[in-house]
Amino acid sequence: MRTATTEEPRTPYRVLALAKIRPNPLQPRKEFREEDLADLEASLRVSGLLQPITVRPAPRGQEGFELIAGERRFRAAQRLGWSEIPAVVRDVDDQTLLSLAMVENLQRADLNPIEEAEGYDQLIREFSLTQQEVADIVGKDRSTVANILRLLALPASVRRLIWDGALTVGHARALLGLGDATAMADLARAAVAEGLSVRAVEERVRSEGQRKKPARSTAGTDARTAEVRDLEDRLRRHLGTDARIVQAGKSPRGELRIPFYTHEDFERVLELILGRTLD
């Protein structure tokens, strides 16, 4: 007769010394708000850690572990003076390390748009991924990834305003229509100072584009210009860039000009025109 034996349940995590864990070197989130850390610290003090952090063994030749996900929990535990913390240990490569950190931050809505764009760009540059592969990793449409990457074409001062939450992604898309770094920075500062809505910024961008066009003289041409402006507006909304229709006088011949600001932006515009991915 066989006797029943009881097995001790396996713990899905290990308890590691905080001193042996170092932050994720590929963490896409660059800044952690003090109030968020304080709130989490208060929660850990009262309720403890509800979800273990995730780490990987340090690279060959080094001791300890590197964070994959849970850096805020890690920092809050440090602030509380904990010596140990529960952690799930996974053996992953650098690409997976960055990918998991990106996904965790996006799922928690922790990344601001510029951090998100820089994270996507890092995946593309360091691991030679396509936009579609990045989109698959983070569970988003390719067009969404491409639109976020366009933010990196903004001047540094404008990116900082978006980072700080002074401007939205909608403001940024409108500003990109100017195509000139100085003009974008000037209008961005005005938008913050005057509290301009996205629609108001779009109107100013449109007015700036019209101001640069040669003046028309005849009534017939003015009527055609109004029609052209409507078509340009529709193209801008569809393509997300400052599309222009250029005609010489009353001639039916002309050009459709569609600017792009980065290689990724060029691919995004082509996809919208062709109606399919380029990969």
Give descriptors for this structure.
single chain, 279 residues, alpha/beta, Conserved hypothetical protein from pyrococcus furiosus pfu- 392566-001, ParB domain, 5-stranded mixed beta sheet, two-stranded antiparallel ribbon, 52% helix, 11% strand, elongated, disordered N terminus
What does this protein structure show overall?
With 279 residues, the protein is of the alpha/beta class. The protein has a domain at 14-110: Conserved hypothetical protein from pyrococcus furiosus pfu- 392566-001, ParB domain, CATH 3.90.1530.10. 52% of the residues lie in helices and 11% in strands. It has 12 helices and 7 strands. Strands 1-5-3-4-2 form a 5-stranded mixed sheet, sandwiched between helices. It has a two-stranded antiparallel sheet with strand order 6-7. It starts with 13 loop residues before the first strand and ends in a 5-residue tail after the last helix. The model is unreliable at 1-11 and 215-224 (pLDDT under 50).
